[in-house]
Fold this sequence. Notes:
Layout (H helix, E strand, L loop, with lengths): L2 E6 L7 H14 L3 E5 L3 H6 L4 E4 L26 H13 L4 E6 L1 H23 L5 H4 L6 E8 L11 E2 H22 L2 E6 L6 H10 L3 E3 L10 H14 L5 E6 L12 H10 L4 E5 L11 H20 L7 E6 L2 E6 H16 L3 H7 L7
Parallel strand pairs: 1-2, 1-4, 4-5, 5-6, 5-11, 7-9, 7-10, 8-9
Antiparallel strand pairs: 2-3, 11-12
Helix pairs in contact: 1-10, 3-4, 4-11, 6-7, 11-12
The structure holds adenosine-5'-diphosphate.
Amino acid sequence: KKKIAVMTSGGDSQGMNAAVRAVVRAGIFHGCDVFAVYEGYSGLVHGKDLIKKMEWEDVRGWLALGGTLIGTARCAEFRERWGRLAGAKNMITNGIDALVVCGGDGSLTGADLFRAEWPSLVEELVRKGEFTEEEVAPYKHLTIVGLVGSIDNDMSGTDSTIGANSSLERIREMVDYIDATATSHSRAFVVEVMGRHCGWLALNAGIATGADYIFIPERAANPLTWKEELKEVCRRHREKGRRKTTVIVAEGALDSDLRPITSEDVKNVLVDLGLDTRITTLGHVQRGGTAVASDRLLATLQGVEAVKAVLDLTPEDPSPLIGILENKIVRQPLVDAVKLTKSVATAIESKDFDKAISLRNTDFIE
Ligand code: ADP
């Protein structure tokens, strides 16, 4: 009987509960025992009541609940070999040999490293007398499956991460609210949105709300001309009778010299244009609330696929990341997706912005 553990790790996102629910129920449906690891990798490292066997009814109602009910954390100990050794011990103690991780690229990198190290971790546990050879015999191989939970939509190899569309919807709603008051007072608003180094939320929110201007890291602004261009566009829109000005700034926005473009910088330009300008930093409302239907669906389909992957993978297969490409749920080598994701950061660092855009889900912009 396969024993699968599921955890959420890194930054939370809407839809993580739906993913956990799907793994728990699909696992039980396929005759597996399913465990929830609480508090991300901390739960693996510290074990005990942070690893809990889940029953069908334990996840009842989870589809409609925000955040992640099994907790998430950033765990420094798991970055160290001794932390992962403790994790391996706790997994074997609970009889677990498969792990489904729902998190961002950091969490999935950690998961793949854990798998690569697994045989040597098991060996070390035997050497230290924690288990006998017979006891570890069924645990020679660790199966890892990745689900991407992130509001940023910053993972390559999938068109959409679990939570991105919910976050986008939240931003859309907030910008609509802001637009109403902006129009009343004929004001300008600089709206700062999350996304770390990825402009997907800012770009899509800007299009969905008809913003005047958008700043994202992948399309870095020309340091010499962006202020004039911004003024020109906003002035033109005003001349056409628009009573509000909305500029969306990704938190990681840059100019092409890789200097950050902050909301304050943008505000100063708009003030210079003579506009009564306010900054609204949306902050954590973007991660909050319940998942939109499409994220619940994505999380459910991917959670079911993750269990199927656990059941059909052989030790020779690379750890898969469950993604969605062109509306199909797909598996791809986790390492490749992580590597491609990292190459976006490298492209930005080396000022190859065209490449950065082409590697993102923002490649529909010219
Ligand atoms: P995200 O998964 O959202 O990208 P982080 O990068 O903070 O978030 O990663 C979440 C957790 O995953 C970290 O706190 C750490 O426990 C684990 N992790 C990340 N990178 C590694 C790594 N290279 N090796 C081992 N564990 C890692």
